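We emphasize that the prediction below concerns an isolated chain of 158 residues; any contacts that depend on oligomerization or on bound cofactors are therefore not represented. The input was used exactly as deposited, without trimming of termini.
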Amino acid sequence: MHKKIVGVVGGHKCSDEVEDLAQNLGKKLAKVVEILVCGGLSGVMEAVCKGFKEEGGLTIGIIPGYDKKEANPYVDIVIPTGLGLARNVLVVKTADVVVALPGEAGTLSEIAFCLQFGIPVISLCSWEIKGVIKANTADEAISKIKEIIIQRQKENRL
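Result of the prediction step, given as a token string:
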């Protein structure tokens, strides 16, 4: 059985409130899954990686450029793609479940890819779209992730 991977998507710029939410989410996620994948840059991505690493988790950043130094300092494994925004497909396809935090068009594209590929996506104070699971707190998102993991294991999808 492969290790469980959660993806977190969100803006490369964010408010202090969203940054705190992302870091808190990262800490809680590290108790549920082994690996976190994200776009590897700043904002939500950096905050969630920081929280996840503080609790001993392994982080993967799939970055849009070729220079590994572009990744935030909390990324353990940097995957430089040179694909620009097209790397968003790789971020979501790597994950077993995705949490979307506030962001703009790039975040929206990642949510759309999740829906297209049948990857469960939880909106934590982010876009509200048909097919997306809504969560209002990090604890609520964690609870939903646990439910999804259990269900997908029963279906032999993990």
